[in-house]
Design a protein that fits this description.
single chain, mainly alpha, 2 strands, about 70% helix, about 5% strand
């Protein structure tokens, strides 16, 4: 009996060690130790402050008001998108983005009504660009993953883009009234966090490693944005995830083969574990898509 237990422990240790090696060698995340520390800090701040405030906001604000506020901030994002479309020399797309902003700002009363997303105009498809995608357009394609304090997942390129958007492009930054300007920034944070309540709860329940899951999904989202794709190819993402599971399965089987008496026991136990994790994996795309937006 003790022999079986020892072999199981060796097999499990081998799998964990292999996972640690692969994590350290992840070329997209060379500063993983630092990033995980910032991730923990952000998660603590979120749990103590942002999430309770967002839950209270959702509880006391009528749905129609939440929709209008969300539309208002989307209209500001559309303005940032329009400027970056022109910076990328995509004149046709820039004109379409500008048209959306003009229609929503005028007919839609500063964007509180998203007129452009109705079927009575030509602006039904919302484009999303920022200075990070603009830098990628001009050649800065590859950039190391970086978790920013308070802002969350990013890269060195996108962190630079975030600063440029916030300081020079975002129209809120040009409001002279300090109280109004800061209030709009705070409202944007609360509105964004409120949109993600269901998704973050789902991610916490579904993900084996929330940090790695958020990192991988966010990087894929940015790659798709840079390549002009509308959404994440979740089938490809989940295939990659399952491939990693298969590699782990092979490692367990390889270790178990050293002792034929316990091989079937180890494999059967791992398959039970894999089955449980696969049921969780089916819930991940929703969490991945929304959490990546935070």
């Amino acid at each position: 009996m003790w022999t079986k237990i020892n072999i199981k422990l060796v097999a499990i240790s081998f799998v964990l060690f292999s996972c640690l090696i692969s994590a350290e060698e992840n070329p997209k995340d060379p500063y993983e130790g630092f990033n995980r520390g910032v991730y923990t800090f952000n998660d603590t701040i979120d749990g103590a402050i942002l999430k309770p405030i967002a839950m209270g906001y959702n509880h006391i604000t009528p749905d129609v008001a939440k929709k209008g506020i969300n539309n208002f901030y989307n209209n500001i994002s559309d303005f940032i998108t329009a400027v970056n479309s022109f910076l990328q020399l995509d004149i046709e797309q820039g004109m379409a983005d500008t048209g959306r902003v003009i229609v929503n700002t005028t007919i839609g009363m500063l964007g509180f009504i998203d007129v452009s997303s109705t079927n009575v105009n030509n602006f039904t498809d919302r484009n999303k660009q920022d200075f990070g995608t603009t830098l990628a357009r001009y050649g800065w394609r590859d950039s190391a993953y970086l978790v920013l304090p308070f802002f969350g997942p990013s890269t060195f390129r996108d962190g630079t883009g975030l600063a440029v958007d916030g300081l020079f492009i975002n129209p809120i930054g040009y409001i002279d009234n300090v109280a109004l300007r800061n209030g709009l920034y705070v409202g944007w944070v609360i509105n964004t966090r409120a949109q993600l309540l269901d998704a973050t709860n789902l991610m916490d329940d579904a993900a084996i490693d929330p940090y790695a899951f958020q990192r991988d999904s966010w990087l894929q989202m940015r790659e798709n944005q840079i390549n002009g794709k509308e959404q994440i190819n979740y089938n490809e993402y989940l295939d990659d995830f399952l491939t990693e599971d298969d590699a782990t399965d092979d490692a367990i089987k390889s270790s178990a083969n050293e002792n034929q008496n316990v091989e079937s026991d180890l494999v059967s136990q791992y398959k039970d574990f894999e089955s449980n994790e696969s049921s969780k994996t089916s819930q991940r795309p929703l969490a991945s898509h929304l959490v990546s937006s935070l």
